Amino acid sequence: xxxxxxxxxxxxxxxxxxxxxxxxxxxxxxxxxxxxxxxxxxxxxxxxxxxxxxxxxxxxxxxxxxxxxxxxxxxxxxxxxxxxxxxxxxxxxxxxxxxxxxxxxxxxxxxxxxxxxxxxxxx
Length: 123
Hints:
The protein is an all-alpha fold. α1 packs antiparallel against α2, α2 runs parallel beside α5 and α4 runs antiparallel to α5. The longest helix has 22 residues.
């Protein structure tokens, strides 16, 4: 799937579900969906450059080459929190940090793509 609009549609759908899970304090879901939102946003950005990935490793390499250090750090913090929330799903503090880092990543990619993602669903 290499269509930017399709990737953004999926990212927004997952982001909406993520925000609802966060409100409901479903922290393991926050960890799961945050990773998926980031993946779809990176895929959308890559699609805007005519690139498609077959592996997580390729997606990560693209992000490391293309994005500022503070964005790749935020992405890694989301990834590591995913594991922590999977084992300690009641950790509301960790889920809140995921939301903060995800907002940073989403807003960076909004500017890069010239499309609203985070703000399009009322956050």
